[in-house]
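For the sake of clarity, the format in which proteins appear in this thesis is described at this point. The record quoted next illustrates the convention:

___
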Amino acid sequence: MTFNNKPKPDDRSDNVEKLQTMVQNTMGNINDANETLQFADGEERAKIAAKNERRKESIQAMKEEIQDESQARQNGFNETNNR
């Protein structure tokens, strides 16, 4: 039995847009969580605050990745350049 599974080519053409959407969604999650703070008790408030801090760290990392991907796009990245 022979398997002809081949990996998909590295398609980075829309990574910037995907990352931007992820940043927007994460910011929306932070806003939603902040709205729930008014109904949360002490322990739940601490959990929400900690999670929002992790979200902010993720946003920062995603923004850095957006810069990297944008730079790669400007430099003419394609699959053959990645090898």
